[in-house]
Amino acid sequence: MKRGMPLPALMLSLLIAAGTGLAAAPAVAAKEKTKTETKAAPKTVPKSTLESAAAPQDNAPPEISPEEQAYRKRIFSNPFYSQIMAAAKTLRGRDMVDFIDMAIQQDSQRMEVIAYWLRDHSFLEKDAAKVNSLYFMAYADVLFWRADEFKAKGDKVSYHAFLKESLQSLYAFEALASADAQRCEDATALQSVRNNMLLNRFDRVLPAYLMFPEETFTAMGKIAVLLEKRFAARPPNHDICGMGAGRILDISKQPGTKKKFVDDPYASGHLRARLVPPPGYVYHSRLIPVKAWNKKRDELDAFLQSDWLRRYVVLKDAAEKQQAAQGAQDEDDIGETAAARQK
User: Fold this and answer.
1) In the chain, which ranges are continuous DSSP H helix?
2) What letter does residue 74 receive in the DSSP assignment?
3) In angstroms, rounded to a whole number, what is the distance separating the alpha carbons of residues 157 and 194?
4) Most exposed of 25, 50, 61, 291 (fewest Cβ within 10 Å)?
């Protein structure tokens, strides 16, 4: 997906109050948006979203507001919604994300429907067998790009709200994808996920570490871990396992493998090498026993909480330094402008 494309204004009420209980905090932007913005970008997540996503399920469906029902009707009537649902019957994980990426490149107006689909198949997914951590990653991207648009428009309230929700989705992705990687026999998968899919995404949300208090990040970590446990019955993620060194080594040994240089999505103007396997190639990743995986998942919980705390300290410091450097640059620019006027 490319940055800067028009995105649907969808919002999750995903901030969980710190403490032993779960309590969904109301979205700030929902109260402060103008009437025009509210109509264009209705709040589409029921108040009970977090309880239904993170806690054990009962048979009672979450309450759906009249606004949500009307919005669903409009989304479902969009012709592309039928296409994405049809694609989802045969495509999973990385293939589905690639389909979404191509669809957006062909027509950026499809973004609203895609964001809705991603939301329903990540945070609001009821069937653990359909859960895929990559959908949380894709949804975090959508929310971030939307936040970036609001920032460009000078709408600070919506910018802060969408950035917060993007960060929550990113936390959820990290918890689920890290646990998925721990299930792989290839021990390099976890580090690959962190290096190639997480660090750059946390770098881009650096401003959030100056906007929100530490308690907000602690709460996001708690709900992310709860979501991972809620979806513990999800199937193995072979796309995640395939990110390790094992798959790359296996592809390099295949007759007909080619090296292709493609645009680096995270470094504008740079190219990155990519191994293209021969047609029909399938990598068969191996998994560790479920009992061993569950033990690693328990250990992972403590590691994530500790790492998120460490990351908060490091990234807040980096954000403060970046802000100071930007302030100094702004002062230099002002000085240069004043000097030029005096000439």
Assistant:
1) 28-32, 35-40, 49-54, 66-76, 79-88, 93-106, 111-120, 133-153, 156-182, 189-193, 199-204, 208-211, 214-230, 238-241, 245-252, 290-342
2) H
3) 30
4) 291
